[in-house]
Amino acid sequence: MIEPHAPAPPGAPPPWRTRGAPGGGQAWLPVRPGVARFLVLAGVFVCAACGLVYELELVALASYLIGDSVTQASVVLSVMVFAMGIGSLAAKRLRPRAALGFGAIEAALALIGGCSALALYAAFAWTGDWGGMWASGSRYLLVAFSLAIGLLIGAEVPLLMELIQRIRRQDPAGMVADLFAADYVGALVGGLAFPFLLLPWLGQLTGALLTGTVNALVGGALVLGLFHRDLSRRSRLLLVLTNLTVLGLLAAAAVQVDDFERAARRAVYGRDVRVALHTGIQEVVLTGGTDGRPLSLFLDGRLRISGRDEHRYRRALVHPAMAGGPHARVLVLGGGDGLAAREVLRHEGVHRVDVVEIDPGVVRLAREDPALSRLNGHAYDDDRVRVITADSFAWLRHVGPRAAYDVVICDLPDPGITASTKLYSQEFYGLAATVLADEGRLVVHAGPLSSRHHVFWTVDATLRAAGLRTAPYRIGTRAPGFVAGPDRTADTTTGAPQDWGFVLAGPGGSAVGVAGVPGVVGIEADRVTGLPPSTLVHPRYAD
To answer: Which of 73, 194, 200, 437 is most buried, judged by most C-beta within 10 A?
Structure first.
């Protein structure tokens, strides 16, 4: 039942009084109940989208800073869902003051969610390291933010139900269906907006701050615009000041975010950062390379090139495979930096080198950056080198020519990174075997043998399960200062590898070996047997 409340000023729309749920009080509205109900559901839609963006932001940043995206996603999702349940229970006490409670919760959620990425990155940059202590401490911070955001998101639902019932009484089942429909559709929009709009256009930090701003504006406008008569004058003033403070803090952070990111990047990589860019696939950072300083290339925070001794790693990766037989046709999977191609081109008799790289930004940098192109010997200027922009797994499956290559070099990220485990799977090696010639060789880096013994021999077992004969080897014996190779820290005091292991493989009927290759030590006698292979549905690598 709708009743005009009080005479309205000339030209102003009349307020509307509605009968709400029993015991729920009555709402005095500046618009008709149907419009008010639509506005509340629209607010639910926006708040749900913001909530999911916060969740995805935590997962993405934690995966980048800590690694192992499956673990980080599991931590965030499980803690957040648990906290939502606790928040829903706690919100029952706020139902008598639902409008004020919802406004306060949205302001807190906007501030905590909007600043969560900044806080995590700041903790990583100024208090963390690349070693084990950060991984443990960062998970505590990740859990704290997941818990806080989950509590606030969970508290929204009971209060929104109360507000909808105060607008217009309806059966509980219908009200819950409408509320959850708006919530789930909003989550869909937020889930799609994060990877396709916010992350590529704004980045993680600015994207989170913008989401917090939208959250605060919508939450504040909903309460102060529709339900201001449910609030005392003091409560209205307090809520206005709170939202203005939150918006001011988010705006100040957004203005300073570029300076913050530069300072944090210097804290992480040192003061010698020359290039820092997001390619749409990963973050690429180049340090050094001028005035006699060694060049380093980081991809998503992990060291891929150390100019001090990267030649040792690339030579160990490339030369045993090239020296084992014919090598006129060579396939490099990964290796967009051009360094593996450089080593391949050192051998006589090479007619063609195909480089399959997923990130064109890395290839462009390898062509155009003076220091990096000098380091790779201007390999991409050689007419024999052809670049194919594609995911290595998909290219081998759908495009790769059969039995076309004498040598296949897998210059890929570390197997312990969740996104890379498919490139170290039995299925991947089975596909790679199909492009090998009858006497072809395939070589894979398998990580430091001394510190990741299980991972190394799992790579070997996976290659053998794909029907390939293997010859495992390593370079050096705890060589001082050895840091080159994928995904390792440049700090030799915090977990840098003291050796590096590789596996050379060939078709089942062929003979492969590394005898006579300078600097290479065969380790066939140390083989660990009985390990199960890693597959797409059962990855067995851990970072």
So the answer is: 194
pLDDT in tens, 22-42: 444 556 788 888 899 999 999
Interacting residues of 70 by C-beta distance below 8 A, sequence separation 6+ = 418
The whole domain housing 356 covers 306-526
359 is in an annotated binding site: no
Q: Are 481 and 308 in contact (CB under 8 A)?
A: yes
Q: What is the pLDDT of residues 34-80, one digit of tens each?
A: 899 999 999 999 999 999 999 999 998 888 777 667 778 888 999 99
Which ranges of 67-171 would DSSP assign to H, the alpha helix?
69-90, 98-127, 132-167
Indicate which residue of 68, 230, 354, 411 is catalytic: 411
Q: State which amino acid sits at residue 348.
A: E
Residues 55 and 114 in one domain: yes
| CATH code of 169's domain | 1.20.1250
Separation CA 80–CA 151 (nearest Å): 8
C-beta neighbour count of 368 within 10 angstroms? 10
- Which amino acid is present at 385? V
Please name which of 388, 383, 407 lies closest in space to residue 399, comparing C-alpha atoms: 388
Structural domain includes residue 288: no
Cα first-last separation, the chain: 63
65, 120 Cβ separation under 8 angstroms: yes
What is the tally of structural domains in the chain?
A: 2
The answer to whether 282 is a known ligand-binding residue is yes
411 is catalytic: yes
Q: Is 426 one of the annotated binding-site residues?
A: no
159, part of any domain: yes
> Does one domain contain both 411 and 506?
yes
Q: Does 214 fall in a domain?
A: yes
Which strands make up the sheet holding 16-19, listed edge to edge? Answer: 2-4, 16-19, 26-29
